[in-house]
Amino acid sequence: NAGVTQTPKFQVLKTGQSMTLQCAQDMNHNSMYWYRQDPGMGLRLIYYSASEGTTDKGEVPNGYNVSRLNKREFSLRLESAAPSQTSVYFCASSGVAMGTDTQYFGPGTRLTVL
Amino acid sequence: AQKITQTQPGMFVQEKEAVTLDCTYDTSDPSYGLFWYKQPSSGEMIFLIYQGSYDQQNATEGRYSLNFQKARKSANLVISASQLGDSAMYFCAMRRTSYDKVIFGPGTSLSVIP
């Protein structure tokens, strides 16, 4: 049982390059999320998906696109990376386990845009 | 709109003492959930405890308990018998209903002093 996995763990891009961050969960959760965390700050929601086939914008969606490929996988794409997108990106999934609502996070992707 | 406030940017506590980390929230929805997470210097997000708005009792999980005061819209985290390994950032978060987005507060940095 791996929980939430993310790839890659580290990435360096040049301005204007594109990339996709991959996320998968094996807990059969319906809801999945992408957050970014800038140095010394809390997490800001980029996009979320309440169920397979649906996605919604969070607080900071500009410059990003997402795909909920199936129940397990939720990817985040940067079409044209900018230095302002340098951040740590976390994927999370949530569901109810033993009567308790829980949200589990992946290990994060540290992205640097030069 | 939802909002989470954590007014203590930094806290210090003596080892083996108890500490309370404050969290207040703002929502007009009757049904919501509150979460606390720990983020050590290694960067991972660790789920600690959950409280539902309709739960009659305060949530507890080992040394963690949540002091939930619904009328005051506060959900303070209490850590009993602090340990050196408790030194970390602590984030309070809220979700209005199942499958809705989760938003985070700015966090509190806790340092445990030997």
Major β-sheet profile of chain A: 7 strands, mixed
Give the overall pLDDT of chain B as a whole number.
92
Q: What is the H/E order of chain A? A: EEEEEEEEEEE
**Are there runs of chain A of 5+ residues with pLDDT below 50, and where?**
none
**Terminus-to-terminus distance of chain B:** 41 Å
Q: Most extensive interface: pair and counts?
A: A-B, 28 and 22 residues
Strand content bin of chain B: over 45%
Report the helical percentage of chain B.
under 10%
Sequence of secondary-structure elements of chain B: EEEEEEEEEEEE
Report the mean per-residue pLDDT of chain A as an integer.
Answer: 92
Task: Explain what you see.
By secondary structure, chain A is mainly beta. Chain A is globular. The model of chain A has no long low-confidence stretch (mean pLDDT 92). Chain A has strands at residues 4-7, 10-13, 19-25, 31-37, 43-49, 56-57, 64-68, 74-78, 87-97, 100-105, 109-113. Chain B contains no helices and twelve strands. In chain B, strands 2, 5, 6, 10, 11 and 12 form a six-stranded mixed β-sheet that branches. Chain B has a four-stranded antiparallel β-sheet with strand order 3-9-8-7, with no helix packed on it. Chain B is globular and about 40 Å long. The A-B interface holds A 30-31, 33, 35, 41-45, 48, 50-51, 56, 58-59, 88, 90, 92, 94, 96, 100-105, 107-108 and B 33, 35, 37, 43-45, 47, 50, 52, 91, 93, 95, 98-107.
